[in-house]
Amino acid sequence: MLSKNKIKLIQSLDRKKIRDSSGLFLVEGNKMVEEALNSDFRIESLICTAGFLDQHPGIRSKANEVIETDSETIRKASLQQNPQDALAIIHQPSPANSELDLSKLIIALDFIQDPGNLGTILRIADWFGIENIICSENTVDIFNPKVVQASMGAIFRIKTQYTRLEDFLSKAVQSKIPVYGTFLEGKNIYSESLTTNGILIMGNEGNGISDEIEHLVTGKLFIPSFSSGKGSESLNVAIATAICCSEFRRR
Amino acid sequence: MLSKNKIKLIQSLDRKKIRDSSGLFLVEGNKMVEEALNSDFRIESLICTAGFLDQHPGIRSKANEVIETDSETIRKASLQQNPQDALAIIHQPSPANSELDLSKLIIALDFIQDPGNLGTILRIADWFGIENIICSENTVDIFNPKVVQASMGAIFRIKTQYTRLEDFLSKAVQSKIPVYGTFLEGKNIYSESLTTNGILIMGNEGNGISDEIEHLVTGKLFIPSFSSGKGSESLNVAIATAICCSEFRRR
User: The whole model's pTM is what?
Assistant: First the structure.
């Protein structure tokens, strides 16, 4: 049975304050819960139907507690519009203490606000084999349920950390690590030579890369538009991230 | 004054049936309404605050009727979570009768279901100077308010038509127009030579390109993943569209 208190806890994980104080986050949907169960993340509660348990023999041992319930109760607890047969309460991993491998490409996010964008960027990073994402402190919380769901499981694979982006980039520049970002006055990304390592900064949805960060960029890039006349003024930040990653990787 | 009936009409434009029978659609937000006013689309009703009218001298002549009201009333009428100072009821353009220019790159959509994805694809097409999008009859309606808002104005520039995709592509193949699509067994898009014209098919979010369409594809492509081990299994369809368009245009 799923207690009222547990339903309350599930729904409260929509709030950052509760996620921060409890160190927990919520994952919903059969596929996402399967990915959680196959990851190194510590599962506090697995809440699912008898059918889901039948289809996944041996999963009882992977969660601290397993609560079997019916679809109707899952629907009641869920934050999703179309809940499925399983959801899970999961422990947030402790922030990685290990040094970043600066010989690889890293994405840095400067004030990404939209959870859907952050989730999609995680999924893109996962596809392009980018293992680390550095987020500015004002970037939306990675454990926001909308980020988690939009990441389609990438949240279990990509290492993220929140930090003062300015300090992080200053150190990178001192260590001669290339720092890239897209700007209207940047060089054509299709013809510019790109290094295999470096930090690729993606900026805020409305304002792009902030002034404090811009002066740390060593390689200003530009994705050219092929629109004749008055076309779109900008690309969505996740779309721009995909095009940049594609350019870095295709060479 | 905004009448109760008008508010009802605005909200009913969320439904395809009503959009189809009335031939109208809804645009919300200052920037989107500005784009509508600057387009060739015929504006039935402009509903906005006095402040919006002040900031846009001369717009009264651009709409069939202008209804000045307050923010609170706009909030009441709006389908958006954060309504701004203006919304507009707009006539859907009559379907383009002119022949498509097959010497250019065209996007064809095979059962795109998510309005956000379709809107984002319109915005991508706009950026990459792709003027025409052909939609399968089961693709989500382009005048769905969520599509319109996600397009960020591209809806006023891109020509779309809904048709039996199979028939359209059969004719294209007969005319020796290259037909591209992404498949797991396709050729690496980064190294494959691509024509400057052709039809690029993007498939359904869950199932990709359908079997009936697949046999009409003359150029099977693949966006390689750079993930080591078990990474994401797929890219979001809008992300894949962006990467494909970028590859077609960068050459």
Answer: 0.94
